[in-house]
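Exercise 7. Given the components listed, write out the predicted structure of the assembled complex. Treat all entries as one system.
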Amino acid sequence: NAGVTQTPKFQVLKTGQSMTLQCAQDMNHNSMYWYRQDPGMGLRLIYYSASEGTTDKGEVPNGYNVSRLNKREFSLRLESAAPSQTSVYFCASTTGGETQYFGPGTRLLVL
Amino acid sequence: GENVEQHPSTLSVQEGDSAVIKCTYSDSASNYFPWYKQELGKRPQLIIDIRSNVGEKKDQRIAVTLNKTAKHFSLHITETQPEDSAVYFCAASKGSGGYQKVTFGTGTKLQVIP
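Answer.
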């Protein structure tokens, strides 16, 4: 039981490049989330998926898109990366209850 | 929407002393208040939580209190140890159609000095 996994662990992009962050969970959770973490700003919700087949915007969705591929997988795409998207990205999942289980994070640097 | 304020942003205590972190929230519909601990370079992990129908909860050296009327809740760590050094996040959460909307505080960096 791996819990929540994320790939890649670290990525460097040039401004304007695109990439997809992958997240998968093996806990049969219904809800999945993408957060970004910046110094002094805590965890801010980018997008979430309450259940398979649904996605909704969170607090800071601009510049991102998501896909809930199936119950296990929830990906985050940056179409045209900007330096302001330099951050640590965390995926999380819950069973529709309250406790959020986080992945190990992806550190993204946009030059 | 919900707004969660967390204080202090940094806290240094001597080993063995107590540490208190305070949070306030704005949405009276919030009914679940978890606390997460994040060690350097690691993922946030739940350490304790409290629901709105409970005023206090304790788990060994950590405790959380909730004042619904004043809309604030606090984390108390007693007999602090160096391994308690980390960033702590509070959060306020409410359910909506099977989905839990969570808003996090900005975090408190706790340093326990041996």
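Discussion: The first strand of chain B starts at residue 4 and ends at 7. Chain B touches chain A at residues 1, 6, 9, 32, 34, 36, 42-46, 49, 89, 93, 97-100, 102-107 (CB under 8 Å).
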